[in-house]
Automatic annotation (TrEMBL):
It holds the Pfam family NAD_binding_1. It comes from the Eukaryota. GO terms for molecular function: oxidoreductase activity. It comes from Dorcoceras hygrometricum. PANTHER family: NADH OXIDOREDUCTASE HCR (PTHR47354), PROTEIN RFBI (PTHR47354:SF5). InterPro entries: Cbr1-like_FAD-bd_dom, FAD-bd_FR_type, FNR_nucleotide-bd, MRET, OxRdtase_FAD/NAD-bd, Riboflavin_synthase-like_b-brl. CDD domains: flavin_oxioreductase. This is FAD-binding FR-type domain-containing protein. PROSITE patterns: FAD_FR. Residues 3-104 form the FAD-binding FR-type domain.
Length: 255
């Protein structure tokens, strides 16, 4: 799937959490639609050759809609613009699709998804892709966040659980005061995974989140027996050779 540059318009904007904005982007009239695999990301092209990567939170849609989750970072020029100034009808220039964080369908192993913050966005896209395929594989979704208000996709995740009884969800909060006696567990999300699954040799693991989280979790998961070639993570790297192999193996999957 060749990457391309195209213009999109903001078709929708809504607040997902106090510091997370959801954007719905659609192709500008006359522009081709972006074609991507669930889990991939795109770059928003800014001035002076600057760009910002954002994971796509949905799979391909009939109308070409692209969903992004943008966390406002203090002092972050573009994220501040999204939060404060970007309006429905505005135009952005993007480049994509990028990345190899996509569903591996040639496995029957149980899956563990680990997301930190807005890293839930590509996890959402991949999990919903597997659910659309009617997978019967066991799925554990771990979402690490600072506080309960950051768990902005809970209603959607409850829908997943109703659709797929084999899907289990685990919220992990880093702020202990936010959890309470009956609330989500607290601590680091990768430690919660290891507490529940001390031996990972039989699993496929997908991770998306801050680089520091991915780095430490990668080492800990491999030490727990997970083969590195079954650990997939969103590192915002573009590796077309790997992606080509994945696409070639997907008989009957068309965008």
């Amino acid at each position: 799937m060749a990457r391309r540059r195209l213009n999109v318009r903001v078709a929708g904007k809504h607040l997902l959490a106090p510091d997370v904005t959801g954007l719905h982007l659609q192709p500008v009239a006359g522009e081709p639609r972006l074609q991507w695999l669930p889990g991939q990301y795109l770059d928003v092209l800014l001035d002076e050759d600057r760009r910002r990567p954002f994971s796509i939170a949905n799979g391909p849609q009939p109308d070409g809609t692209i969903e992004l989750h943008v966390r406002h970072v203090a002092g972050g020029g573009f994220t501040s613009r999204v939060a404060d100034a970007l309006a429905v009808g505005d135009t952005l220039r993007i480049e994509g699709p990028l990345g190899t964080f996509v569903a591996r369908e040639d496995s029957e192993r149980p899956m563990i998804f680990v997301a930190g913050g807005t890293g839930i966005a590509p996890v959402k896209a991949i999990v919903e892709h597997f659910l659309e395929l009617g997978t019967r594989r066991a799925i554990d979704v771990y979402w690490g966040a600072r506080s309960a208000t950051d768990l902005y996709l809970l209603p959607r995740i409850r829908q997943w659980q109703r659709q797929a009884p084999q899907l289990r969800f685990h919220a992990v909060l880093s702020e202990a005061a936010q959890a309470g006696d009956a609330g989500p567990r607290t601590g680091l999300v990768h430690e919660a995974v290891l507490a529940d699954h001390p031996a990972l040799a039989a699993y496929d693991v997908y991770m998306s989140g801050p680089p520091a989280m991915i780095d430490i979790a990668r080492h800990r998961f491999v030490a727990a027996g997970l083969p590195e070639d079954r650990l997939y993570y969103d590192s915002f790297d573009y590796a077309p050779d790997v992606l080509a192999q994945i696409i070639a193996s997907r008989a009957g999957f068309h965008l």
